[in-house]
Amino acid sequence: MSASVPSAAAGDVERFDVARARPPFPLRRVILWVVILGVALDFGIIVANNPNFGWPVVAAYFFDPTVMEGLTITLGLTVIAMIIGVALGLILAIARMSQDRLASSLSNLFIWFFRGTPLLVQLIFWYNLSTLFPKISLAIPFGPTLISWNTNDIITPLTAAIVGLALNEAAYMAEIIRGGLLSVDKGQGETAAAFGMTRARALRRVIIPQAMRSIVPPTGNQLISMIKATSLVSVIAMADLLYSVQSIYNRTFEVIPMLMVAVIWYLLITTVLNIGQSAIERHYNRGERGDATKDEAPAVPAQENA
Questions:
Q1: What is the pTM of this model?
Q2: Which CATH number characterizes residue 180's domain?
Q3: Structural domains counted in the chain
């Protein structure tokens, strides 16, 4: 009798200790946060009080008409190049995964060339296409020319920028889309074919919606990269955001303040895109978490017959 009393008391003490248990105070983490926030605050104060940044000039030119026109061109180039790049990238991805050797080889060649050469070189090449081909002609092979145009009339800075950005983006989007399509289980396509769906309809209705979960994050990164890559078109005299601020500081000699105007606008745009990307990712990831645990009922042990 007496031997069981200490064990019972020990059990009560253990239950009491567990009920009153609390996680330890994260002192190291708090200290780390205080240090990081202190350094960030100190850096922000230094930047805000540094007169060399020319914050009054930044405020004066932030909504300048020239800057706003350049911003409009930057956003327009991004949207057009991304739409063409995604559409062409989808075709290239499907062609590369095709059993047709010709389609696969041509797709591989396109991706190899445009991923293997710098975007700046491609833009300069398209802008100076008239050096190689003074005229662009539509003709029957080994036959008469049906119609021709002067290359300089077609390849303007705008068309050179759109073609260069779109084709370069298509090469990268092809690999992103191909990776997303490969992430979908092969059984999905086989099941769709068993229900009588064509390959195109299976891609549109079954495979691509499931692949979007893997396609959206890298596509968002490519869109942000495209926003920044548009600054390269300034070398071909395209009046984008960077070219616009350059034209201003070439006149006013306020180099740093005008560059800060461009930096702030780029950061604002990428912030909005990050928020949109997060919303799209949540849309395609809904049901992935929580549903499995909600639907799975706990196993009930079988009762033994007495």
A1: 0.78
A2: 1.10.3720.10
A3: 1
